[in-house]
Amino acid sequence: MKNYEVSLKPLTPIHIWSGYESLVGFDIVDFGREICIVDFEKLPQELISQLASSKPQKWSYILRKYRGSIECRIRAKKTFTIPLPPGRKVKIPNDEVVPGSTLKGYIRTSILFWLLRKMPMQQAVNLLKSSINLTVAPKKVATKLEESVFKEKRVKKAGGLIDILQLLTVSDPLAKYNVVFELLKFVTQESIGGKLRTIAENYVIAFTKGTLLFNLRILKPPTSENITNTPPQLLADIKKFEEILNINVNEALKEFGCSILQGEYLRIKNINELREYAEVLSKWFRKYCLTNRNCVIARIGFMTGHQAKTILPLIRSLDQKLYGNILNYLTLYFGKTWDERTFKLVDYLGKKLGVGWCEICLKELN
């Protein structure tokens, strides 16, 4: 078994959405330099009674008045001075900040990218053409591709599929050090003629500082030597599991992360408003992609775009026609244009930067 300590630190603000939103004036209290997501279950009875007998429009005033008695589920720094208007929705982060399932999903995509890159080019192209299905919902488009790479059908009597990555486990954060949340506005901007215009925005509570520690394990696969009189039908299963021994997780993460970084740089390098962002990406490329180290660049979370969540950039480099067909399919399915002209950004530390960038470090344990 291989056992790793994995640390994750944000380089730019990260948001993993919990699926819940809070409302300013209801369960969000704006204290000026920070906001509080109120924990109503822990409010004093006197305050609960006063809220119950008051109009909702007055709740924000009452809660500010009792700020010393309020328990907050989350406190987040607020770097802008303009008060948030009542009714403004704010996306709430996952309780784990970055859950293990999110990290494993990113690792899975990285490994798929890495394995396809290692194939002879024509073999990879043929596999993509035969396994990408544009007649199903987007979440299932690459199901056959993943099955071809990661899975093996069991014998008919057993049924189901063997997935080699079931031997790779990622815990939820085992420790969270100096975690800081900030209320920020993530924007989607479109480039037209080298000029940016905002087409969507979301207020989020983002993870901006601190370190999360995870445990990643690659379990030792079974071998025929472990099983007395190995039944012939199990030999294929065992052979499939053994493929995980050839996967270099750190190398896969590095190649995928650097590919995302290079793709983002090429998209923004000629946009004057994003000049500082391009300089930051160049610095990260030298740090994470031109040296051998146990830390890699990654991009995860809300509003990081299909470039960071799929292998579309690799498909583009291997088969332009298939790439174009996928974009056309997504455009028709979602009713909005899928292209390379939109950027997911945040104003942070005086610069306009892409959201979701982080450093992931792997340390093998004895």
Give descriptors for this structure.
366 residues, alpha+beta, 15 strands, 34% helix, globular
Describe the protein's topology.
Layout: E1 2-10, E2 17-23, E3 28-30, E4 34-38, H1 45-52, H2 59-65, E5 72-78, E6 89-93, H3 100-118, H4 121-131, H5 143-150, E7 151-153, E8 161-163, E9 168-170, E10 175-192, E11 195-218, H6 232-241, H7 249-268, H8 275-288, E12 295-299, H9 306-309, H10 312-318, H11 320-334, E13 342-348, E14 351-354, E15 357-365
Parallel strand pairs: 5-10
Antiparallel strand pairs: 1-11, 1-15, 2-6, 3-4, 4-5, 7-8, 9-11, 10-11, 10-13, 12-15, 13-14
Helix pairs in contact: 3-7, 4-5, 7-8, 10-11
Tell me the Rg in angstroms.
Answer: 24 Å
Helical content band: 25-40%
H/E element order: EEEEHHEEHHHEEEEEHHHEHHHEEE
Describe the main β-sheet briefly: 11 strands, mixed
Structural class: alpha+beta
Taking pLDDT < 50 over at least 5 consecutive residues as the criterion, the unreliable ranges are: none
Overall pLDDT metric? 87
What's the total helix number? 11
- Fraction of residues in β-strands: 25-35%
Taking the alpha carbons of the first and last residues, their distance comes to 10 Å
DSSP strand tally = 15
Shape: globular
Task: Describe the protein in words.
The N and C termini lie close together (10 Å). The radius of gyration is 24 Å and the shape is globular. The chain contains 11 helices and 15 strands. Helix 4 (121-131) crosses helix 5 and helix 10 crosses helix 11 (320-334). By secondary structure, it is of the alpha+beta class. 34% of the residues lie in helices and 31% in strands. Strand 10 and strand 11 (195-218) form a beta hairpin.
